[in-house]
Amino acid sequence: MSREDIMRRLELLRIEHRDLDSAISALVDSGSGDQMQVARLKKRKLRLRDEMALLEDQLVPDIIA
Prior knowledge:
Layout: H1 3-30, H2 35-59
Helix pairs in contact: 1-2
């Protein structure tokens, strides 16, 4: 995967992560949020964060000490 592909994928993941954050907040604030649905959204958000971390690691060159 090229650096540009990684950057594009990261941007898409960040957007989805922010959208999930907004959706979770809206569900919790409305009081009508199904706890299972909130839990699924939070789990998806964590998976996105993990994928973003992996991609960010690919952008940073390994430093041999």
